[in-house]
Amino acid sequence: MLSAARPVITIDGPSGSGKGTIASRLAQRLGFTLLDSGALYRVLGLAALRAGLKPEEDQEAIAALAADLPIHFGRAVTDAPWKDDSVWLGAEEVSLAIRTDEASAWASLVAAIPAVRASLLQRQRDFLGDAGLVADGRDMGTTVFPEAPLKVFLTASVEARAERRHKQLIAKGIDAILSALLRELQERDARDTQRSASPLRAAEDAITIDSTDMSIEQVMAQIEELIAIKIGKH
Ligand code: C5P
User: Fold this and answer.
1) What residues of the chain score a pLDDT lower than 50?
2) Is residue 126 assigned to a domain?
3) Is the CB of 94 under 6 A from ligand 1?
4) Residue 189's domain spans which residues?
5) What is the CATH number of the domain that holds 51?
6) Which end of the chain is flanked by fewer CB atoms within 10 Å, N or C?
7) What DSSP assignment string belongs to 43-60?
8) Quick check: pTM over 0.85?
9) What is the number of the ligand 1 atom nearest to the C-alpha of 111?
């Protein structure tokens, strides 16, 4: 159950809007648990891929896999909600494996299966710990935590998102082509907004922040103002 003592802050938005970074920093600052819901879909996509299951043909089997999937976040194991962002599938650390282009594409394909979303719903709600929760995803404010007192829809132009991703990859020494990144983001946006099950959209009571011309610090400052208004001191 949601309560004023255990507030939920939802941060939804398209890929590359910066919501992962913002959600993680907020959780750290507030001492809240962090739910990276995209990582759940990514781990499932990876597991389905490895099991040879096809999103178009094997929807029931993938939903069954979702129900029993042994996903863990390192922070849950270390008892430090924000210090360790590692992601585990059983005993295997899959933090890097879930970020490949192939795993990203499969994540958004398995995420479009209604039975998969239903199967992961309670699991996501169970992340609400004793202090509070910052939930990062596409449908946190619309479907998973519709009663959250603060809902943010974080967006940015697709060009700005592609440029940010390009800079990140180049900084890591990974070759990347801006036009290809732009096309990939446009494809993912289209899949995420046009699917019938929990499409990406802002909740009616969400506050939209367009970060196209904003730094991470500016976005954080704006959200902290909203927390003071909507939730009170933390
Ligand atoms: O946020 P991230 O890019 O890690 O999410 C990976 C994919 O998982 C997205 O492209 C989206 O299709 C799916 N997703 C979703 N609902 C969420 C979070 C992620 O459908 N709440």
Assistant:
1) 77-83
2) yes
3) no
4) 1-32+131-228
5) 3.40.50.300
6) N
7) HHHHHHHHTT--TTT-HH
8) yes
9) 20
